[in-house]
Design a protein that fits this description.
Layout: E1 6-15, E2 18-19, H1 21-30, E3 35-37, E4 50-52, H2 74-89, E5 102-108, H3 115-124, E6 126-127, E7 130-131, H4 136-142, H5 148-152, H6 156-165, E8 171-174, H7 180-193, E9 199-207, H8 211-220, H9 226-229, E10 248-257, H10 258-263, E11 270-279, H11 285-303, E12 313-314, H12 321-334, E13 340-341, H13 344-347, H14 354-366, E14 400-406, E15 411-419
């Protein structure tokens, strides 16, 4: 459905390049990367030991009830922090809000339990030096932290946000990897357009920064080894790219009915003009290219705009060898000549939060009348036939841009956004 009433009035960011919109914007303008050595656990023995972590983050600054921290995974802590920052940015603390028409739709990843919570039950199930699964359901569970299950439910992020902000309206969680947060944005805007809410917190939060997660990443073999060598990775659309860098973070937007925002005197930062949710069976490279291309065309049709109205594309741009080619081929066909940028070059692939972080990057720089640059794209790959924005002062000459994400499972999502800066 086309969006006619949904605007953005607040942005909250907790990222590897800054906590809060101003710090985030400053890093984008200065070209500061968030990639560095892993510090949240000992990465010794792993083939890749670098990531884009949120550093110097203290959840106690943002969670009013300290007891809640005991049942909050890091994903939830990041999400609550970003939501409170967005709430403040939107000026919502000064005037009362109808809690029953205040919703939350958030993107989330699988949440692994912490190593500390796993050690005791694991050791209890050891027999003759090996893990005995037969002991898990009885002896293992007997020494498991009773509330640990509440920490790893993906929907708990949205639940904690609704409790902290007293949002009693529609509440949902989208669990679709890199597409999650833009899918959450579309659902949140749909709630407003259907008059089911006046305000909706949307976005994503994720932190796959446990040894369990990294064991899986190592097996998948998609990580950039160059990140350990010089930190100049990921390198989206660059000839020398060698894989993705994993990250973490949260980015949240306050979506609001325009007349509701005007009535309370809120600053309108952007308008959501259209969106698309597409699936193609991922049987070959054609699956990614077809899904991305169809998502772009459908979003443009939904927004009622022509391809040449788009100023630039905020791309998935993971820095992986094959997928960057597949994605760029779709852009070359559906948005010929339109500049492309890849903010993952700043803060890596944060999974469920990456789309929201990338959109936040575009809106953070809209007031500066510039486009987020793509770091480390020193030698653009000729197999990626798109003009990549690599300059830090590339002007934003049009007020419309398109933000896109896709998953290797075949899902693609695109939104057309109009900046009001």
């Amino acid at each position: 459905m086309a969006f006619r009433e949904t605007v953005v009035t607040g942005i909250g960011v907790v990222s590897p390049i800054g906590v809060g919109l101003e710090a985030f914007r400053a890093s984008l303008l200065s070209g500061v990367s968030g990639v560095g050595p892993i510090t949240q656990f000992d990465p010794g023995g792993l083939p890749v030991r670098s990531a884009a972590e949120v550093r110097d983050f203290d959840a106690r600054r943002f969670v009013p009830n300290r007891k809640s921290l005991k049942v909050m995974a890091r994903d939830a802590q990041l999400g609550v922090a970003a939501s409170r920052l967005a709430f403040q940015e939107a000026g919502l603390g000064a005037k009362p809000v109808d809690a029953d028409r205040f919703g939350v739709v958030l993107g989330a990843d699988r949440i692994c339990g912490s190593l500390d919570d796993s050690i005791a039950p694991y050791r209890t199930c050891i027999t003759d030096g090996r893990f005995d699964f037969r002991r898990w359901a009885t002896e293992g569970f007997a020494v498991t932290y009773p509330l640990s299950f509440l920490k790893v439910l993906p929907n708990m992020i949205a639940s904690h946000i609704s409790i902290v902000l007293d949002a009693r309206g529609p509440n949902n969680t989208i669990h679709q990897a890199e597409a999650s947060s833009l899918l959450a944005l579309i659902e949140g805007a749909t709630l407003i357009e259907r008059d089911l809410a006046d305000l909706v917190i949307v976005g994503g939060a994720a932190s796959e920064m446990t040894p369990f997660d990294w064991s899986r990443f190592a097996v998948l073999g998609r990580l950039s080894r160059r990140a350990d060598q010089d930190g100049r990775s990921p390198r989206p659309f660059d000839r020398d790219r060698d894989g993705e860098v994993r990250g973490e973070g949260a980015a949240v937007f306050v979506l609001e009915r325009e007349r509701h925002a005007v009535h309370r005197g809120a600053k309108i930062m952007a308008r959501i003009r259209g969106g698309a949710r597409i699936y193609h069976r991922p049987s070959s490279s054609h699956g990614v290219t077809a899904a991305v291309g169809q998502a772009v065309r459908t979003a443009l049709h939904d927004a009622g705009v022509a391809p040449d109205a788009i100023g630039y594309v905020n791309a998935e741009g993971r820095g992986t060898i094959r997928e960057d080619i597949w994605e760029s081929l779709a852009f070359a066909e559906s948005l010929p000549g339109v500049p492309v940028t890849a903010p993952k070059s700043f803060f890596g692939n944060g999974g469920a939060c990456c789309g929201a972080l990338e959109l936040a990057a575009s809106l953070a720089l809209a007031e500066e009348k510039t486009v987020p640059r793509t770091l480390h794209c020193d030698s653009p790959d000729t197999q990626c036939p798109v003009p990549v924005v690599t300059s830090g002062d590339y002007p934003s000459e049009k007020n419309l841009f398109l933000s896109l994400n896709y998953t290797l499972a075949g899902q693609a999502v695109a939104v057309v956004v109009e900046s009001t800066a």
